[in-house]
Amino acid sequence: MAQLDLGSGGLTPSPHRVTLRARLDGTRPDRAVHPDRNQVKDGPRRNEAVDARRTGRPLENDEKPEKRMTTSTSKIVLVTGASSGIGAATARALAGAGHHVVLGARRVDRLAEVVDDIKAAGGSAEYSELDVTSLDSMKTFVSTAHERHGRIDVLVNNAGVMPLSPLIMERTDDWDQMIDVNVRGVLHGIAAALPLMKAQGSGHFINIASTLGHEVVPTAAVYSATKYAVRAISEGVRKENSDIRVSIVSPSFVESELIQGGDPGTMAWVQGLADKLALPTTAVSDAIVYAVNQPDHVDVNELVIRSVLDAAA
Ligand SMILES: NC(=O)c1ccc[n+]([C@@H]2O[C@H](COP(=O)([O-])OP(=O)(O)OC[C@H]3O[C@@H](n4cnc5c(N)ncnc54)[C@H](OP(=O)(O)O)[C@@H]3O)[C@@H](O)[C@H]2O)c1
Prior knowledge:
By secondary structure, this protein is α/β, with parallel strands linked by helices. It contains nine helices and seven strands. The site of NADP nicotinamide-adenine-dinucleotide phosphate (NAP) has 30 residues, from helix 3. Belongs to the short-chain dehydrogenases/reductases (SDR) family.
C-alpha cells in the first residue's frame, strides 16, 4: 500500500506521495504538490506524529501539536460539506497532499465512505457529524478536532445549498435555507475557529463562494446574495486579522449534487447549463490545495474558476 512519505522532510519529491495523490483524485501522477512549496521545519517528527495518529500510538512530548512549528507539510484541515461534490474532492486532495483532514456533514455514511477511501490510499482522515446551521454543532466539530490535534490550521467553509427560483415565486423556505447554510454556516465556522486560530497565532479560512458572488442572474438573486455575503465576510476577516489567511474560492459550474430542490423548471434549466459547462471537482480541489500549500506569508485572496466554455454561454 502506498504510504505518505514526509520523512524526507518533503524536500524531495516522493514517488509514493505522487502515486497516493493520483490514487485519491484520479489525476495523473505527475501533478503532486511541488516540494519547494513546503518548507518543512520539523519533518521527521511530524511524520512520526502522522503515523501515531493512524495507529493510535500515544504522542511523544515533542510530537505533540503544540510543540510543533506552524509551517509544515502536514496541516490539520477541517472541511465542511465533505460528504459529496467539492467538499469530498477537497478532502481527498488535501489528504493526498499529506494533510490530516477532518470531514464534516450531516450524511455520516457518506463521510465514512470518503474517509475509508482516503485511508485505503494511505492518507490520514477522520469525520464527525456536522450541521453548519447550528452554532453548537459547529463549535463541537471544531473544538473536538482542536482537542484531539492541539491546533486547527485550516477550515474550509464549503457546505452550501442552491435551490433556485424567481423571486416572484416567494419560495421563502428556500431563501431561509440558503441564508442558514451558505451565510450562517460560514459565520458559525468563523465563530468556532477564529478564537482558536488567534490563540495559536495563525490559521487559514477557505470560504467557497461562487461566480454568482460576482454577478446576479435571474432566479439566483438569493443564492447570489449569500455568495456576495461570503465574499464580504471573508474580506472582513482578512482585513481584521493580519495573522490569519483568508482565501475565497469562486467556481462556476462544477460536477456535484448541488442541483436539487428549488423550482423544478428553473432547476431543469440550470441542469442543462451544468451539463454543458460543469468542470470536474478536481478543478476546485486542486486550487484549494494550492492555496493551503503556499508559504505562511502568502495569502491567496481569491480564485475564480470557470470552464473556458463559460465565455460563450
Ligand atoms: N457545484 C457548483 O456548480 C458550484 C458552483 C459554485 C459554488 N459552489 C459551492 O460549492 C460548495 C459545495 O457544493 P457542491 O457543488 O459540492 O454541492 P454538493 O455536492 O451538494 O455538496 C454540498 C455539501 O454541503 C453539505 N451541506 C448542506 N447542508 C448542510 C448543513 N446544514 N450542514 C452541513 N453540511 C451541509 C452537504 O452535506 P450533507 O447533505 O451530508 O449535510 C454536501 O456535502 C457550496 O458552497 C456551493 O454553493 C458550487
